Automatic annotation (TrEMBL):
Signal peptide: none annotated. It is a multi-pass membrane protein. It comes from Alteromonas pelagimontana. InterPro entries: EmrE-like, Small_drug/metabolite_transptr, Small_multidrug_res. Pfam families: Multi_Drug_Res. GO terms for molecular function: transmembrane transporter activity. This is Guanidinium exporter. Belongs to the drug/metabolite transporter (DMT) superfamily. Small multidrug resistance (SMR) (TC 2.A.7.1) family. Gdx/SugE subfamily. It comes from the Bacteria. Keywords: Cell membrane, Membrane, Transmembrane, Transmembrane helix, Transport. GO terms for biological process: xenobiotic detoxification by transmembrane export across the plasma membrane. Coiled coil: none annotated. It is found in: Cell membrane.
Length: 104
């Protein structure tokens, strides 16, 4: 169950990171509120997962999900550039997340 909670914590991290772009420096009230809501949910879920998962593994997986998800969101929603090196780097982060999961 802790892994499922951690997964949703990572998804919430992607949401608040992408929300920062929409909030436009916290000048837009609704996107700012949604960004802060997702940030709080992300931290709460991470904290819940830490009840049973080791800190280093949980934090590494949380950050990895956030990094991969945010990079993909940037490409899809914000039309950021795509290169083979960027995709390979995202793949390496994903492999690291899988490795942490398998090691625990």
């Amino acid at each position: 169950m802790a892994w499922i909670i951690l997964f949703f914590a990572g998804i919430s991290e992607v949401a608040w990171a992408a929300g920062l772009k929409y909030a436009d420096g916290f000048t837009k009230p609704l996107p700012s509120a949604l960004t802060l809501f997702c940030l709080i949910i992300s931290f709460l879920l991470l904290g819940l997962s830490l009840r049973t998962l080791p800190l280093g593994v949980a934090y590494g997986v949380w950050v990895g999900i956030g990094a991969v998800g945010t990079a993909i969101a940037g490409i899809v929603f914000f039309h950021e550039s795509v290169s083979l090196l960027k995709l390979a780097s995202i793949g390496l982060i994903l492999l690291g997340v899988i490795g942490l999961k398998l090691a625990s």
